[in-house]
Fold this protein.
Amino acid sequence: MKIKYMFIAGCLLLTSACSDFLDHPLTTSVSDDNIGEIIQKNPAKLGEFLGSAYRSLGSIMLYGRQTEYMSTMSHEMDIDWLGEEQRNQWAINGLTSSNKNVEEAYIKYYKALASANLMLDLIDHVDLEALDEEKKTMVMNFQGESLFLRAFIHFDLLRLFGEQGPSFGGMYPNNKDAKGIILMEGIADASNAITARSTIEECYQLIIKDLKKAETCIGDNQIPVNTAVPGPGYTDTDYTKDQGWAQKPAVHALLGKVYLYMSDYANAKTEFEKVIGDSRFKLDKPVNFTDYIQHTDNNPECIFSLQYYLSSGSAYDDAPQHHLVRIFGGAPGAWNNFFVDQRTAARFGDDPRLYEATLYDYTWQAWSTATTGITFIKADTDVPDYRYYARKYTDFYNVSSPVFSTKNVDIIRLADIYLMYAEVMLKLNSVDVGTEYVNKVRRRAWGESNYDVPGTKGEDFSTVTMEILQEERYKELFFENIRWYDICRWGILEQELAKYPSTKAGTVHYDPQDYYLPIPESELRTNPLMKQSKGY
């Protein structure tokens, strides 16, 4: 224990901006007995450990780049650069256990999990009753956020690596006894470093337990809205650097989503209605192509977003900028490794969200400067090998480094909640309610001034079916790292892949094990209790 807390104390010193945080010299014994006392001198510094968990999620190994490789498996995107076999595997739905991208993401998720568990361990050593009310509330909020993050990370890992699909009778509860993931409820040490995979059922029970406990202690604040109006010379500041993390609405939203994945529609309905009934949240204005911007970061639609902002540091590692534009966008200096699949425009049809999600039909002629905005010209979509790119994360006013975007990555937003709620209501045979919530999202997309009343532009559906809802989620949430998970939980992977028989990387393959990712070879080598998933 002394070694563990000597390391923690050293980290606290290294991250502290002032010497009064820790007046214990590092030669002093640091143990279970006094680590709480050390932290209580300045519990606000715990936030820096919490920040490291968020930064890990936002890194280029996860939401800052590599988790969006899932968009090539769902065929929202196609691959243009064929120089790495590991990337080509995503594009043909042919992942192997030696794929380095999979290994890097797996390791990074567990590093983020370790940060959340470290926070919870440290908080367990704090005497909350010895703190004044303000500091007690702050520490309890840290605890709630850490529990939320642990549940969120476990849920992501379970959706990626847990056995599911036709080989296991479909989704939960049919696959409840199948292999899930390694659950980490505490700091790894000699007693738990080598651990077997828990069942799907056990994984869900821990995720729910953590979220329910998080609800009792996390704050109930809303992210401050960025009121700055982007224009020439605008740069994204760090106004959310130390705020804008998960709060109680995010707990309800994620808990509802977990229940939906478990086919527990009654509980999902209850949790979603807590978010829908919160007057602080509403659908944001529609984005017109001529705005040259996307939805403002932390607008009233955002429930949980990973925060990115302009920084002088490197855009690699866990920096607060992401690579989504460099890899998937069309900005100056972008690598453009991936482009929007050519079949996307036909699938959208006349839906205006095509122009919010992509740069279809246009290309930039001159990028913005400190004094002038960007200019676009029409593109010839009929030329051979026409390319167009994702638009959602592009900051058209980013002059200094347009490929290292500071646009936030929205993880949960209200439109997603509306569409999941609609799905739940369809499952509960309340078709009228489900139809109305799909239509609310469509009315916003068509630019209606009030999305709560019937549309005036012919966009309303009279009756929504599951097939219609599935397409609505495709169009509304395009390239938001959601489509792949939707396809898998609906059990429609084989049908979806049939629509995309080939990509630039080759023929697309379907096998039942495509519903989940392989456990990396490195994990199999180092953990004798780890068992590979069926089919790999």
Observations:
- The CA atoms of residues 366 and 375 lie 5 Å apart.
- Strands lie at 77-79, 302-306, 338-340, 362-366, 375-378, 409-413, 502-503, 506-507.
- Residues 9-29 have pLDDT under 50 and may be disordered.
